[in-house]
Amino acid sequence: MQTTILDKQLSFLREIDRLKTVVRQSPLLDKSRKENSAEHSWHLAMYALLLNEYACGPVNTNRVVQMLLLHDIVEIDVGDFPIHSDSSGSFQAEEESKAAERLFGLLPQQQGNEFLALWREFERAETEDAKFAKALDRFQPLLVNVFTHGGTWTENDVSLEQVFSRYGPVIQRGAPQLWAVCEQWVTQHFSEQALRVSGMPKDSTG
Amino acid sequence: MQTTILDKQLSFLREIDRLKTVVRQSPLLDKSRKENSAEHSWHLAMYALLLNEYACGPVNTNRVVQMLLLHDIVEIDVGDFPIHSDSSGSFQAEEESKAAERLFGLLPQQQGNEFLALWREFERAETEDAKFAKALDRFQPLLVNVFTHGGTWTENDVSLEQVFSRYGPVIQRGAPQLWAVCEQWVTQHFSEQALRVSGMPKDSTG
Is B154 contained in some domain? Predict the structure, then answer.
């Protein structure tokens, strides 16, 4: 019986190796390539360990770490839905829910149910733990875009207003002090960008 | 003052982005490329969450997860020392210790000291938590080698006896039930390999 339990656990651990091949939109900070969802999950877990003092309310850091370690596992089946895309939110939620059931269903029942519950808690973003986890999941790519001088914002022609509306509410809700820093970064980033554009030589054909 | 603390935390979180560019010897399970140390750390944290029932003694799973999230961060400065290399153990330990002091030294003092203590506990491998973490750090690449039909063993011409001596003691000590499974896998792997070699056509020039 023990062997069967271990077999299921190892099947799951082999299956989730595939998260290392899911490529996100965000680059690494050295811009050498795009980030994958497994290393992104590792980085977010480190963010949670270090930045828990900025959570909106009292959080259980270990639960936040666990949530962030498994929050993207569904992407093995459905891929990464970029923040700056036109995909339908309800379609995405349905596909991800099916993926969670399949993937966590590979585990022994009790562990699978625990992981599924934790994943659903993250998705619903209602508890303090989930609100903070969601905030970090928005904060990290924003930081990457600022420190790579544009990143996915430049690629997708995203405006300051769009950054504020797409990242602001989630970060503000889960980690207001971090959002205060973001506001400064984002404002400065777009001011500098405007200066660069206005300083460009005029199009000689125009 | 708060800003200074956050600045240090964010400098550290930016610095450790580089762990995503440290390439290990082990391949991904689909053999598409080598694994990097950041995604390896994520995977090990998942191993710890799922396999804690096989630890040699009572462990605090959250501490084991934390240890595994940060155990390889020193590789940002010193790179990965492969298990099947001739590098000097004491030289490696000294270089890694310097790296840990520099990297965790980027953090606010209290957090830096906590991380450094956790990293040293992992390295010393004396507590139950550290013995289990070390066992998982050996178990995962062994699993990868078995399920990729050789992996780094084939590349480095490693024998069954060398696998037993290089992986066995650490896994046996921290997770004896997992070592029992490894023994079966490894024995079967090398039997099959011997069959493949003996079934090869003879060298016509011989």
Answer: yes
pLDDT 10s digits, A13-66: 999 999 999 999 999 999 999 999 999 999 999 999 999 999 999 999 999 999
CATH number of the domain enclosing B154: 1.10.3210.10
pLDDT at A24: 96
Whole domain around residue A142: which residue ranges? 5-198
Judged by DSSP in three states, B25 sits in strand
For residue B146, the surrounding DSSP H or E stretch is helix B128-147
How many Å lie between the alpha carbon of B202 and the closest alpha carbon of chain A? 37
Tokens of A98: 């099916």
Residue A23 phi, psi dihedral angles, 5° rounding: -95, 130
Q: Do A16 and B43 touch (CB under 8 A)?
A: yes
The two structure tokens encoding residue B126: 């004396």
Q: How many domains does chain A have?
A: 1
* Domain membership flag for residue B175: yes
Say yes or no: A70 contacts chain B, CB-CB below 8 A: yes
Which one is predicted more confidently, A10 or B199?
A: A10
Position A204 in a domain:
no
Average pLDDT over residues B83-103: 86
Distance, in angstroms, between A200 CA and closest chain B CA? 31
Answer yes or no: do A46 and B70 touch at CB < 8 A.
yes
Q: Residue A203 falls within a domain, yes or no?
A: no
Asked if A16 reaches chain B (Cβ–Cβ under 8 Å), the answer is yes
DSSP state of A36: E
Complex-level ipTM beyond the 0.90 threshold: yes
